[in-house]
Amino acid sequence: MSSIRFEQVGQSFGDRCVLRNVNLSLTEHRIGIVGANGSGKSTLVRMINGLVTPTSGTVTVDGLDVARHARDVRRKVGFIFTNPDNQIVMPTVQEDVAFSLRRRGLSPAEIAERTAAALEQFGLSEHAEHPAHRLSGGQKQLLALASVLVARPATIVADEPTTLLDARNARRIGELLHTLPQQVIVVTHHLHLVEEFDRVIVIEEGMVVADGAPAQALAAYRALLQ
Amino acid sequence: MIGLYSPGTSLIHRAPTLLKLFLLSLCVVLIGSSPNPWIVSGAAAGVVLLFLAARVPVRAAAAQIAPILLILLVTVPIQGLLSGWTVAALMAGRLLVAVALATLFTMTTTVTAVLEAFQKLLRPFRRFIDTDRVGLLVALTIRCIPLVSDIVREVFEARTARGTRGSLLSIAVPVVVRSLYAADALGEALVARGLDD
């Protein structure tokens, strides 16, 4: 597993302080991050692949400073967004998956082979040549996962990947996240999604307020909701 | 190209994109400049044969060619009265053949293939322009058409749901604002997927 370290990380947008004094070392296989809307959890995970650069402190992935080596870090860390519509950049399903393999020095045959394998893994083979925008919401999120995993990252960060999905699709994505060999970091409001993870972190008003085994951390989060 | 591509394995699907593009341009120029009605009607028959060979869905193809008929409905009588019916028929035939050929190209060529063809065409100019970037620009433009049309539909639905009937401005403002948000999100996704330069 990758080792992701947050050291004295703080983030503010103008006067508003979104994260303060965050110190974390993430080395577990599956990590859940929960917290209220606007608690800073999305900002926190965006720092792992350099989508957001902290205003103070440093984030490192396997010893690489994300602020200075963002491109190398992004090859190790794949990111899944809440709304797959914004993640799909190419017009057809197959093209979107193949897009992740550009500029990697792969031959067209290798790209075709890996794309086909990824589509097969996520049950999208029959939609390979269909326009991506015609897929259902669940299929779009599967496509987003396929497009990220085809690049073989060591870590997957998912920001509320099941929020827009129906119960069945949410469960399907949840099961996939449970079985991936990659390190998985999931931000979610679906608490049951992370109940069997290795570690759960609770963020409240920009600070880590609970961190540990899911049972204990989720109990602390539920207590906060009272 | 957006959802118009109809998957298949015919000779026309498999032909190299640049060759198809070249033949398309050549045919349109030749037919457009030919004063001989026989050549134009021969070309029309050829186009029908090509459609049969490509085995694309008739309905989808017809939907692409139909709009030109509306234009012909207006222009053919005018031209017929002004400069004779032979000229009018010739013009109609040329337009139909050109549009049908372009439709066939669109329906048998994936967007990726078109992008690759463009990148090849631009290769001699690689010193001055980044061909990858131009390709990406075109792909994103195509991708954004359904994205923006979804936004427009949702804004209309929201307006209907609230029972308001506003000015054009009341539609334009939310559409533009939401399109900008979507552009931000798309930019973030591009960065996350390694296009960060």
UniProtKB/TrEMBL annotation, chain A:
Keywords: ATP-binding, Nucleotide-binding, Transport. The keyword Nucleotide-binding applies. It comes from the Bacteria. Pfam families: ABC_tran (PF00005). Residues 4-226 form the ABC transporter domain. The keyword ATP-binding applies. InterPro entries: AAA+_ATPase, ABC_transporter-like_ATP-bd, ABC_transporter-like_CS, ABC_transpr_CbiO/EcfA_su, ECF_ABC_transporter_ATP-bd, P-loop_NTPase. One of its GO terms (cellular component) is ATP-binding cassette (ABC) transporter complex. Belongs to the ABC transporter superfamily. This is ABC transporter ATP-binding protein. It comes from Cryobacterium gelidum.
Automatic annotation (TrEMBL), chain B:
One of its GO terms (cellular component) is plasma membrane. InterPro entries: ABC/ECF_trnsptr_transmembrane. The keyword Isomerase does not apply. It comes from the Bacteria. It is a multi-pass membrane protein. Signal peptide: none annotated. Keywords: Membrane, Transmembrane, Transmembrane helix. The chain crosses the membrane at residues 12-32, 38-56, 68-89, 95-118. It is found in: Membrane. Its main location: membrane. This is Energy-coupling factor transporter transmembrane protein EcfT. It comes from Cryobacterium gelidum.
